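Hello everyone,

My group is preparing for a crystallization screen and wants a predicted model to guide construct design. The compound we'll soak is GYZ. Before spending weeks at the bench, it would help to have a computed complex in hand. I've included the protein sequence and the ligand's SMILES below. Output in structure-token form would be ideal because that's what our pipeline reads.
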Amino acid sequence: KKRSILITLLLGLICGQTFSQEKTTQISLKHGSHRSGKRTDATMQRWREYGLGQFIHWGIYSIPGGGWDGKTYGGAAEWIRSWSGKDAPNDWRKTYDNLYKQFNPVDFNANKWAEQAKNMGAKYVIFTTKHHDGFCMWPSKYTEYTIANTPYKKDIVKEVVDAYNKVGIDVYLYFSVMDWSHQGWRYDIKSPEDSIAFESFKKFTRNQLLELLTSYPSAKGLWFDGTWDKSWVKQAEFADELETEMRTLRPGLIIGSRFRADDFGKRHVDSNGVMMGDYEQGWERNLPNSIEDVHGHDWDCVMTIPDNQWGYNSHWKGYVKTPYNLIEMLVKSVSLSGNFVINFGPDGKGNIRQEETSIAKEIGDWMKTNNEAIYGCSHADMKKQDWGYFTQKGRKLYLTVFNRPINNCLNVEISEKGVKPTKAYFLANKLPVAIQDAGKNKQNNNLYNIVIPAKYISDKPFVIVLELEESQTNEKAYQQART
Ligand SMILES: C[C@@H]1O/C(=N\OC(=O)Nc2ccccc2)[C@@H](O)[C@H](O)[C@@H]1O
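Reply:
Good plan to model first. Here are the tokens for the complex, ready for your pipeline.
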């Protein structure tokens, strides 16, 4: 018996020692993350308070709109140039590569787009300067494949930046590193020829990025894409130095986690699990389900209205999200301390389609009444309830109700020890709402029922404000319990 106790103790010691070594060993990286934790500067805080953004995918791919010669195809419309075989118009590439010669969006009016985005309640816009096909919506001097060589001629990026800034919406520039139009682009680097070609591509990419930052100084950040292929993943040093160069050129610049890979090809988070970039960009057409999924990072979710079409597609297939699907995703994003960005795909003439216009209107109407529960709000340390979501700003909790309980009682569990709600009222009309004390649960948390008046009818999600007393301790008491 004594021997077995001794062996158990020894094993425990060895495992404990191994575990503690794994926990503290950091892999030394030259090109991993250069900062951990959230950025605390004012520019990033402004980004954090946006809540709602607009994505715009607009380019040559908007001309075919997912089809050709009267036939439509299933893939993402902005990828049409890459389609081949039965899923593509025959002899497609040559046709596509000449489409820019007919790009003349006569209906384009950046001020109208900006007005619509303003009315929707968007605080920032992400605009495609260059998508994977390599066509530049600005007159880049590093390639002929630009807006300058189309019948339209004018600098669309400038028109968008100026129009959106004029109505107080910040602009972020989407840039695809992958560029199918450039001779030097490679998916991987497998030969000396690949290396030489890719060196010219890297130089071209750096030139274009510095050109964008210099030409549009009011752009607050870059939203990178097309960085998943091995060729780019192998450029840890180059990409790291380029990111540093861009941040030096534009102090405060905001760049997400999708730009570069570390010394070992790790993307989004480096080999030590530390996020690279200022916010997590992996939530693409996907949302975190809990605050744990967010890992304490800033993040944005970019979302299409149909299933998976970013560029204009004349025939939306599959499920098209309703305004209230999108409003629920927006509130859920803010309740988990993220931003929600809704994509619009204007057509080849520069029109925003009717479906997107009516969604923007419906969301805008809801935001006009309820934006206090969105702007500047973030996660509340409250137990998630079925009736909807909590967002918080200071000592105000915003309860956005999507699923009204039959008994009209919104369960609320306050884990901050000793903190009680002082009053509750509808955000829309400030009419008071009763707070019923419902005792304590087994974690000794205070329970309450917020009682929605039976006569209150709403066919839309609504917000109740719950004001809390000042917190009794600077550390939330329950956190001590958890450690
Ligand atoms: C915003 C979208 O970004 C893309 N691709 O994103 C991703 O591939 N996202 C992704 C992939 C795997 C996991 C997580 C995100 C593009 O190909 C697409 O055309 C669009 O511009």
